[in-house]
Amino acid sequence: MSPLSAPPPFRNPLAEQRADPHITRHADGRYHFTASVPSYDRIVLRSSRTLAGLASAEESVVWTRHASGDMGAHIWAPELHRADGAWYIHFAAAPADDVWRIRMWVLESTHPDPHRGAWIEKGRIVTAWDTFSLDAHTFTHRGDRYLAWAQHEPGTDSGTAIFLSRMADPWTLTGPQVRLSAPEYAWERVGFAVNEGPAVLRRNGRVFMTYSASATDANYCMGLLTADDTSDLMDPASWVKSPEPVFAGCAEAGQYGPGHNSFTVAEDGRTDVLVYHARPYERIEGDPLRDPNRHTRVQPFGWRADGTPDFGTPVRT
């Protein structure tokens, strides 16, 4: 029985009312989980020796929004990463008096335990344009550190597209910033023309980058970009975009709008795990961003014979 047909070994949802989930497994085997909270006012962190243990792990508030000025509203999509001997949290925030002027920011802690150390504000990630930007995702490949993120490009009708740049350090971009994907297909433009939430996975001689598309309601879904492991990742021509969503809502499973994913591995170190949020109902009253019930979910996924990921469909609650 394949991992996609076997009963999922995880509790789902793993964490209720936690959107834009990010789970990383540290070198010591501990899992660290952070996500957006419905009030969009703080950054929380859970840690556990097991993936399942994150469901009941004590949650720490490691940082709270400013009462005024920068980083005062819309605290969105935090990601925790280890780099250069320190912990970093990349997240989005807006000024308290201009709540849609969303930009990307970075926190740093040099303490070995991300729950206990003081978090220092390293500042804003400065991009080529001072426009709406969010969902910073950092990764290393062949000795270089990169940042993938979503941003509005001036002069386009897209809400956000996916961009890539090399980094001088975990809070500074260097060199050119290139667009890898803009919302061009109909399934990327339902409600809003959006590509956002990039996440990188490297397997089978290729670099895979998932992203999320359309409005954050039941139409939200995941797309996929693929590049050869040896190619120049900064060349947009190196990336091939899948013409159809690779993960979408499933009425049979009762899960809608899956997306803003990350990747981790199970305790065996071999089983790949998809981390994402979804809602257990299709209809939403009012603004989807004000509906709190995007729940964090986890499920194993497999690989096709051609070496590409097979995410399947959302599992049942």
Order of helices and strands: EEEEEEEEEEEEEEEEEEEEE
Rounded mean pLDDT is 96
Main sheet summary: 4 strands, antiparallel
CATH superfamily annotation: Glycosyl hydrolase domain, family 43
Form type: globular
Protein name: Family 43 glycosylhydrolase
Family: Belongs to the glycosyl hydrolase 43 family.
Region (Disordered): 285-317
Organism: Streptomyces argenteolus
Q: What do you see in this structure?
A:
The chain has 317 residues and is an all-beta fold. The chain contains no helices and 21 strands. The chain has a four-stranded antiparallel β-sheet, with no helix packed on it. Strands 5-6-7-8 form a four-stranded antiparallel β-sheet, with no helix packed on it. It is globular. The N terminus is likely disordered. It comes from Streptomyces argenteolus. This is Family 43 glycosylhydrolase.
Question: How would you briefly describe this protein structure?
Answer:
This protein is mainly beta. 0% of the residues lie in helices and 47% in strands.
Helix-strand layout with pairing:
Elements: E1 19-25, E2 31-36, E3 42-48, E4 60-64, E5 73-83, E6 86-94, E7 103-109, E8 120-124, E9 133-141, E10 144-151, E11 161-169, E12 172-181, E13 195-203, E14 206-213, E15 221-228, E16 239-241, E17 256-265, E18 272-279, E19 295-300, E20 302-303, E21 309-310
Antiparallel strand pairs: 1-2, 2-3, 3-4, 5-6, 6-7, 7-8, 9-10, 10-11, 11-12, 13-14, 14-15, 15-16, 17-18, 18-19, 20-21
Give the tags.
21 strands; four-stranded antiparallel β-sheet; 317 residues
